[in-house]
Amino acid sequence: MDDELCLLPATEQARALRAGACSARELVAAHLARIERIDPVVNAIVTRTPERALAAADEADRRRARGDDLPPLHGLPIAHKDLQDTAGVRTTYGSPSYRDHVPATDSLQVERLREAGAILVGKTNTPEWGAGSHTFNPVFGATRNAWDTTRSAGGSSGGGAVALACRMLPIADGSDLGGSLRNPAAWSGVFGLRPTPGLVPRWPVSAPWLPFAVEGPMARTAGDLALLLAAMAGPDARDPLSQRAARPDLAPPFAAVSGRRVAWSPTVGGLPIDAVVSEVLAAALPLLREAGLVISEDEPDFAGADEVFETWRAFSSATGLGDEYDAHGGDMKPTVRAEVERGRALTSSMLSRATRLQAELAERMRAFFDRHDYLACPVTQVEPFPIEQEYATEIDGVPMGSYIEWMRSNSRISATLCPAISVPVGFTRTGLPVGLQLVARPFGERALLEVAHALELRAGLGDRRPPLAL
Asked: Which of 33, 108, 190, 367 is the most buried (most CB within 10 A)?
């Protein structure tokens, strides 16, 4: 019976806690037991806090017994990505230089989700400094794909995505620069949402005015995603970008999406896409039509998007990791070192050009969303690759020039600054999950959740679990 609690969606777990059908201690203990049983196979939750979690659960039960007002995530277990500072709990950033690092303060998101009632059970694995979409690092090793443990889980939020797929967590946080929420969600068969920059506040950050890196939610249903995003979102004085973002209305029920317009872009502006991915997505398009959506084949002009993303990514690396490079560069993986060096080599002309290109791209996206309500496209260009590989070096016969080039189906969308969601829509013939990416105009998160919910109802994948999680 305890294990059955872990299989419920987060929204149903929350209702059970509020109704007294189970206690927070029972729910947390059930998840801790499941972590003990399954995680040694996948290596998703790399630091665990069972005593602290059970003590917090007992306090949550006392609050309910007193009749206190209960916060929205009351009693729900969560494990934070190992890029998030957690006061008194080891936070390594996947770096050997921080193998034993214990922060004195919480990050804004950890603080906010604790105040919303979530209970910390541990930290989820991430690549070193969150760089690259394959979750491995020299501190904890690699996180394995829940559906095929010989394959990558994606990244950089790979630990959280796998923990969700295995029902070790009901909700998980993540971050996304060039696909770090969307890619692992697609490869784990769960939902991941990249919000509009500023909707979810971030602190501490080295460059608070740069809008490309965001934090956001992952979950197993659209309703669960809305529950977590509502708790994460809303302005905070520590994040200047968040000051323009009102707290969104994400309360159920979701509206019908019939009559809304979807532009289908099978290649995201001419990118190579493996046939196994395209096959699953083509079979999923009728689900959109069943929901009443009107589909046409169209796409924005993505000219300059790669240069925008790759320039500002390098600049962000030099800004955020420059001091680490100077102090511990010898311990950094080569791709991270190279990114810092590229950022330091940028000229003012390069940054000016990237700024102009991004402004032009944003204007074209505005015009595009005058014609359409959504853009639909692949999340990933390939299926999960072998875990021993660092990144996909070839797609559909086309060589990839770097460790981030194979992620352009995600990073081109990041460059637009529009919100995007990865929705599980099917499986390859070998049983690996595939996600459909849906993009909306800025601050269109509710519209994304509504169409994701419509797809979820029609795809019928909600109860499908990896064999090791049965």
From this structure: 190
Catalytic residue check, 133: no
Q: Are 459 and 427 in contact (CB under 8 A)?
A: no
CA–CA separation, 395 vs 295, rounded Å? 27
What's the number of CA atoms in the CB half-sphere (13 Å) around residue 298? 17
* Cα distance between residue 468 and residue 434, in whole Å: 19
Task: Answer yes or no: are the C-beta atoms of 154 and 146 closer than 8 Å.
Answer: no
Instruction: Answer whether 128's CB lies under 8 Å from 46's CB.
Output: no
- The sign one gets for the Cα dihedral 94, 96, 97, 102 is positive
- Please name the residues in contact with 360: beta carbons below 8 A apart, sequence gap of 6 or more: 303, 304
Catalytic residue among 152, 157, 180, 316: 180
Q: Which of 81, 152, 157, 242 is catalytic?
A: 81
Residue in 97, 426, 375, 414 with CA at minimum distance from that of residue 262? 375
Question: Structure pTM?
Answer: 0.98
Q: How far is CA 48 from CA 6, 105, 247, 307, in A?
A: 17, 18, 31, 40
pLDDT tens for 17-48 read 999 999 999 999 999 999 999 999 999 999 99
Based on the residue annotation, tell me whether 180 is a catalytic residue of this protein. yes
218, 415, 419, 430, 453 from 360: Cα distances, Å = 31, 11, 18, 41, 32
Candidates 420, 333, 339, 429; CA nearest to 380 is: 420
Helix (H, G, I), strand (E, B) or coil at 216: strand
Distance from C-alpha of 171 to C-alpha of 378, rounded to nearest angstrom:
24
* Residue closest to 408 by CA, chosen among 179, 158, 130, 176: 179
**166 exposed, middle or buried (CB, 10 Å; 0-12, 13-18, 19+)?**
buried
340's tokens: 């810092």
Q: Which of 23, 95, 133, 156 is catalytic?
A: 156
pLDDT tens for 148-174 read: 999 999 999 999 999 999 999 999 999
Instruction: Output DSSP code: residue 241.
Output: G
Q: Cβ contacts of residue 44 below 8 Å, gap of 6+?
A: 124, 125, 143, 153, 158, 159, 160, 162, 163, 166, 168
Quickly tell me which residue has 């009102």 as its tokens.
246
At 177, list the tokens: 């620069």
Over residues 215-242, mean pLDDT: 98
Q: Is 156 among the residues known to form the active site? A: yes
Alpha-carbon distances, residue 201 vs 216, 230, 267 (angstroms) = 10, 12, 32
Cβ-based neighbour number of residue 283 at 10 Å: 12
CB 81 within 8 A of CB 177: no
